[in-house]
């Protein structure tokens, strides 16, 4: 388990589906996407029979393992969105995600929410060449995050640090208070229009919602929908006050740098450094296995990178990982077609995006035409990933190529 989940103590699992059942809306997946969808649906229509089906327990997947960034980031740049959909729709997409950062906070769930923004450090000449013109200088950057070798930085206010485990558990509890039924220990085996087949029984529903993110390829017919790529994390012991006085992050700003291989970190509410990054291999056939959560070589690189960033030897207390979902064109999507709704493919930027997805799915399921249902990601369909072995070769070659480009920058 992640630090986030272990810090909350033992999991008390909810009862499994007792057999065949009927509902108005059946949601496959007890993570942020499924729970936010249930939350907004139940608030809008308390009369609906809503059932959430989860293979393990709510938050077992990416929702309980992520870096705790509720950010306005979107994997597709505004420039690319503008070329595909037009300038105004692209602006609306990014504005909606920025508002979602605040909406997570407005929900009022106790999750150590702190909107300090995000600082992206510039630490090499190559990174400096690629950075935007409206960047901070080195002194301004160090005043926020006093990392080593800083040449400048890029700051955005549209990010909040939070405790992912508290958010997902609090959200699940709130959803139940609104009258939604959650069945854990209930593995979805297949879904089609009108029904979800599980290992505990079949749920028939007017609308079926697929909210499985990196676990989507385990469903029949969805093997090439997204590629499950692993991101791994470490968390330190609580660091003393004098260390934090030197590092900064006084408003719990989240931090990264301008390298291509993504890294991400935050100062937790109890003064730890929680730090993660990509770089773990993609596994043949889009396999998702518990043993893939732990790659000692990647943990070692994360510890080395964190030590090098702040010039300290970090006392690592927790190590964990998990899969995230990547569509072929890196474009997240949300939609409804022929009784099946879906949302996902967040490419690791899902904490705030799932909230926007939940509100958008609510509008779609209730037949509303709103500003949210007109956003560019609505009913977008990414092309499927290539069959194996091309998928394995291509993704892992991309990961190695990214690492080589970063080495060239250094």
Textual characterization of the structure:
The chain is an alpha/beta fold and 410 residues long. Helices cover 32% and strands 23% of the residues. The chain has eleven helices and 18 strands. The protein has helices at 3-6, 32-44, 78-85, 87-106, 125-130, 138-144, 164-177, 241-247, 296-310, 350-365, 390-409; strands at 21-28, 50-53, 69-71, 118-122, 136-137, 152-156, 159-161, 181-183, 188-192, 195-198, 202-210, 227-236, 254-257, 263-267, 273-277, 316-326, 333-337, 340-344. The strands form four sheets. Strands 1, 2, 8, 9, 10, 11, 17 and 18 form an eight-stranded mixed beta sheet that branches. Strands 5-6-4-13 form a four-stranded mixed beta sheet. It has a four-stranded antiparallel beta sheet with strand order 14-15-12-16, covered by helices on one side. Strand 9 (188-192) and strand 10 form a beta hairpin. Helix 3 (78-85) packs across helix 4 and helix 4 (87-106) packs across helix 10. The longest helix is centred in the first third of the chain and has 20 residues, at 87-106. The radius of gyration is 21 Å and the shape is globular. The mean pLDDT is 96.
């Amino acid at each position: 388990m992640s630090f986030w989940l272990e810090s909350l103590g033992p999991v008390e699992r909810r009862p499994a589906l007792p057999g065949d059942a009927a509902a108005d809306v059946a949601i496959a997946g007890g993570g942020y996407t499924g729970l936010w969808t249930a939350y907004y649906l139940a608030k809008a229509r308390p009369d609906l029979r809503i059932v959430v089906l989860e293979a393990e327990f709510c938050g077992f997947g990416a929702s309980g393992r992520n870096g705790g960034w509720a950010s306005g980031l979107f994997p597709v740049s505004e420039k690319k969105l503008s070329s595909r959909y037009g300038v105004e729709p692209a602006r609306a997409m990014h504005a909606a995600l920025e508002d979602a950062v605040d909406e997570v906070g407005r929900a009022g769930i106790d999750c150590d929410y702190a909107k300090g923004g995000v600082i992206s450090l510039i630490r090499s000449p190559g990174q400096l060449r690629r950075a935007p013109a409206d960047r901070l200088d080195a002194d301004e950057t160090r005043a926020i995050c006093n990392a080593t070798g800083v040449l400048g930085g890029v700051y955005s206010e549209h990010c909040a640090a939070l405790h992912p485990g508290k958010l997902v558990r609090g959200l699940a509890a709130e959803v139940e208070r609104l009258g939604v039924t959650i069945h854990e220990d209930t593995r979805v085996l297949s879904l089609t229009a009108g029904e979800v087949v599980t290992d505990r029984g079949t749920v028939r529903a007017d609308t079926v919602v697929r909210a499985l993110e990196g676990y989507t390829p385990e469903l029949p017919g969805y093997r090439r929908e997204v590629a499950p790529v692993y991101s791994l994390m470490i968390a330190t012991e609580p660091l003393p006050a004098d260390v934090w006085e030197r590092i900064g992050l006084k408003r719990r700003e989240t931090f990264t740098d301008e390298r291509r291989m993504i890294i991400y970190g935050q100062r937790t509410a109890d003064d730890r450094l929680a730090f993660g990054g990509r770089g773990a291999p993609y596994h043949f056939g889009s396999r998702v296995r518990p043993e893939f959560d732990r790659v000692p070589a990647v943990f070692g690189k994360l510890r080395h990178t964190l030590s090098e960033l702040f010039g300290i030897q970090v006392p690592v207390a927790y190590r964990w990982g998990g899969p995230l979902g990547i569509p072929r064109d890196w474009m997240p999507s949300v939609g409804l077609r022929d009784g099946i709704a879906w949302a996902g493919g967040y490419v690791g930027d899902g904490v705030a995006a799932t909230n926007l997805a939940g509100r958008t799915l609510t509008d779609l399921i209730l037949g509303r035409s709103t500003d949210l249902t007109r956003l560019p990601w609505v009913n977008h369909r990414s092309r499927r990933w290539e069959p194996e072995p091309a998928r394995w070769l291509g993704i892992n070659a991309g990961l190695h190529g990214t690492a080589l480009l970063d080495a060239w920058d250094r």
